[in-house]
Fold each of these.
Amino acid sequence: MAEVLAAAKACGIPLWLRGGWAMDFFLGEVTREHGDIDWFAWAKDAAPLAGILVRLGHTPVPGPPAGLQLDFVKDGLESSFTLVDTDAAGRVTVAGGPWAGTPWPDGLLGTEPGRIGALEAPIVDPRVQIEIKRMMPVWDPSRPRRAKDAEDIARLEAALRRRTAG
């Protein structure tokens, strides 16, 4: 993760963690085992990002449409880069696939980085992460509600309450 973040940053390519790792970086600790690393990246950066990943030893794997997401694997760990774009109103949107042009929730790409130990990483805004975890089964009925999503929502809400109260 640190290697990908550093290489992308050196090339001027912003990335944001999403999913379980985004939550963990917001909370400041690893809460569970992760089978993959989920990211957001700008669609305009897809080709240079793919080149960086290959140079770092990642292998492309088939997955969703290329305009929607890039999938790679290294040492058995999958990394998925969901691609985003902007519309004429400046909203962050789905970059490709059947939902191309659909706006993501406002504030998706968080402005405050998360941290675990010394490693800092841009993350999806935790409020938006909650919204995505709640709404994904509605937006895409093929994706059922999962117990880990309910647990993540509870953790994120508790952390947000503590930060507001403190």
Amino acid sequence: MHLHPPNSPLRVLLWFILSTLSFPSFATEPNQALNFDQKVNSFISPIAQQLSSIVFYKISLFGYSVPIIVLWLSMAAVFFTFYLNFVNLRGLGTAFRLIRGDYTNPKATGEISHFQAVATAISGTVGIGNIGGVAVAITIGGPGATFWLIMAGFLSMSTKLVECTLGVKYRKVNPDGSISGGPMYYLEHYLKSRNYPRLGKCLGGFYALALVIGCLGIGNMFQSNQAYAQLLVVTGESQSFFADKGWLFGVIMAVLVALVILGGISSIAKVTAKLVPIMAILYVVSACVILTMSAEHLPNAVSLIFSHAFSLESATGGAIGAIIVGFQRAVFSNEAGIGSSSIAHSAVQTDEPASEGLVSLFEPLIDTVFICTLSALVVISTAYPTGLIHGELVGIELTSAVFAHHITWAPYPLAIAALLFAFSTTIAWSYYGLKGWTYLFGEKRHSKLLFKLMFCSFVALGSMIHLDAVLQFSDALVFLIAVPNVLGLYLFAPLVKREVEDYLNRIKLGEIVNYRLMGDSLDNQPSHKRLWYRITNRAQYRSEQT
């Protein structure tokens, strides 16, 4: 019996899930018995390959194959950086003060703080790709790819600002006080304002549906699968206690995820606010130890990055190859332009949309510019002098070998960091998927509980099976939604520019209250804080004196 795709969003989603779990796939031999993995892959594979070939369609550019979606996102990053007059530089100081709580109105609408929103969004982007993906970029594009990765990360900060500003501006406050926001809401709003309400609803529904399905793959099964693989690496591979107990690891991870996500965004934000600094410190300290031990090669590593970034030697990938690989890695790393981060930022406690756009500048800065650069320096300073770069190791295996070259037990903290990255990414994407789900099916409590239980079951499933086709399908869907999202960002660009410039001007004029300094009486503050308050809040201070 064949399952035919239905029309309604709910039936489409249920059809996909049920057919994934139960469809009797075709075998190469009529009587050949297929296991669960093979059945699912056999059914999904043709669809996944077709969709992936469209989404990641490549064109030849200076002799290199480049996915059009990478060009689409990269051009948007360049455009918004220039259009907003390099706000990714001008706004960093204000962004830092916002995260610190300087301008957080305790009476403003929202569920989480600026810092919690950043932590949640970073946890969704900082993952195993930051450790292994950078090594892949260096292997393919040479050391020069690192320079262009940094540049791409810097430029994508502007894209992130635009989508997160819109996420707050067009968010929906539900009757219970919870917040729903993201591309599906601002895309619908724009088309509705242009008298295309049905088209807006359809486009928002498409984004939400793709987000739900995508989150079950790239933000769920892939993470638990990779986390399980890392656990096996440090516990003895085939000799590990967990070697034939993927189900046990999956159940444990699913339970841990459930304990966090059942509490909603407040619970997720509290966990990520603690988890992100811990895993970042763990990885950064480990990487710095390795850099210290390879300090003699560090100057040469930096020299290689800059010389190869502009080199014309085809043997090392050349400048063009380095640019392409660097930008591609950055796009896949920080997800700027996909719109997922705006969902987390829409829940922040603020009445100023531009404030959250400015705060979001820190995500690509930390994710791509800082952590990816650190990973690159670790790999280049050791892999090139030792010849590891010319071996067969790639990705996280190469990074792990670099760590092990200096300290035999160094792969253990690396594996722990990878496990934490996978866990934090999973809980962040659970929230993104939930908001896509509620956009489609409403905010009813039982509906949200159903999604969370389904999400946790897929976490357990991911560590037990290898669904390459499903992951390929969900990966393609996640990047497909960047097309309508970036188009919407272009349309909203003038509005965002006005919002941001107006907000920055009001801060400069002292019209935005510095609530952190006003928490106590100004007279009780140290002299330097009183002076700083008078400088940064001139208008308010003058009115208080009169």
Amino acid sequence: MSDTSTIKAPTKRGDAIFAVLTSGASIFTLLMLGGIIASLVVASWPTITAFGFDFLFTANWDPPIDEYGALVPIYGTLVTSFIALIIAVPISFGIALFLTELSPPWLRRPLGTAIELLAAVPSIVYGMWGLLVFAPIFAKYVQVPLNATIGQVPVIGALFSGPPIGIGLLTAGVVLAIMIIPYIAAVMRDVFEVTPVMLKEAGYGMGCTTWEVVWKIVLPHTKVGVIGGIMLGLGRALGETMAVTFVIGNTNYLNDISLFSPGNSITSALANEFAEADAGLHTSALMELGLVLFLITFIVLVASKLLLAKLSSNGR
């Protein structure tokens, strides 16, 4: 008979070490996030005390006389991101629908790979292409017709007035849309593919068209994932820097609401001015711009989480 007196019970030392490491990683993430917020607030404090909330609603940005207002960059960031979503969401939906429901098998994989490769293109390449190739074509074949037609309509015509110079808010929004389409389309395609085949086959068996199956079966089943993909694209658009810097115009003026006018975004202002800013209010104003961008993305994240939670609860 074997001697069992030397057999030791397994210890929980490995579990304890694993728990410490994972807890430490979580705590480190929270500390890093808190450190970023604290450093932004501290660096922005001179501007916060000097201008208060007027910083958010003032369009004047004049470093030589130390007057700063973030309205133009905030407006440019929100407008270009909104334009990008308006364009990118329906196109991404069409791409995902084609890949999952309509595409022949021999085309599905190469087309899906090509769309995913678009996400790997560096943003500076999009920016150079937008400035040197897209902007002149856009000015001649899109802005001129828009100005001659919709630009003459009362009220909404103000959005398409002004000289067609190519660069501006609308151009930046279109370039952003091209950049975020691969992200949204890839997420939509993936969530469409997880829809149970039996549900779709049941719809087709009842005589539903492809659109009816997508609208009444696929979308209700995947709405949480679709919203998540859209929020991913919005976050990408809000934080984009180089491509927007090339085509937005980089001017801190808000004389009208025309989408043809050049403007600025928070990321473009930071990229253009941070390296040359002095150590006074100029740097503090730029740091507060970074803080504002952080708050905007945080608000978008919270709103998306609340929306997803509501959709999930309604789907149960």
Amino acid sequence: MGISVELRQLRFFLCVVDHRSVAAAARVLNIAQPALSRQISTMEAEMGARLFNRLSRGVSLTRFGRELEVRARVLVAQADQMRSEVAQAFAGTIGRLRIGVIPGYGWLPGITGAVSGLASNQREVRFEFVSCLSGEQIELIKCGRLDAGCLAWRSPQDPSLRGIVIHSEKMAIAIPRKSSLASSRNPRLRDFAGQTFLTFPRDRSPAHYDSLMRKFAQAGIEPAESAATASDSATLLGLVAAGLGFAIVPETFARYHQNEIVLRKIPELDMPFELQLVWSADNRDPLLLELVRAFEHPLPPDGH
């Protein structure tokens, strides 16, 4: 048979221990002495052992009572700590945040500045960053496995999500340096008719894929089918460097493979690459709201 003792009863027990008197403990607890005596008797009956020796003046602990005191103090302290931590978590001062980041963008000042600002604000916040593509992040946010995500190409028509822009840049076309098109300073998208374009698989980032296909259609071209795909821009550029085709990527990636690739701006690629902090519209976690505010006002690169 299991023992059923409430935390409240343990507090009563410890108060009697500390004051070595049921009467004195009752006054401190602001309850009637007979009621406190009944609580102690109930505990003794539940445990099948006497906890106190009743003296002419006050009480003393039995051997069983001393054993219980040690464990009761640990349990009560743990309960108090848990209550304090839950209260702090509710206030947004401690806790853990799981944040998604698309590959290659964790270094952005808007991200590092926001995290630094939140972490330095005397908060016991633990961060867990998960590298994954935008489409995967959205699914993880919706099922509660991510608190927020730094992602691109989300559908603004999705009412279950909210977001703020944290970074914006233009798109460019990555051209193998050995290609004849690399020498053109002002290429147009139609110049690449029939060429192979390397892209993400549509199921990994539907909005991004569909946006590119619309641009190709508007330019009146149909890219040749590619024998290779990749799940992030850095890998796409590796395939371009290997001469497997062309890719449309954010300008940030101009620093990659500079000996093998040139990046050129294309007038038709007027769609901005916007990175957003995205979270569930139903998530009211105070710590998440603190994170949003930190992204709205990130620390500058020098930290001041």
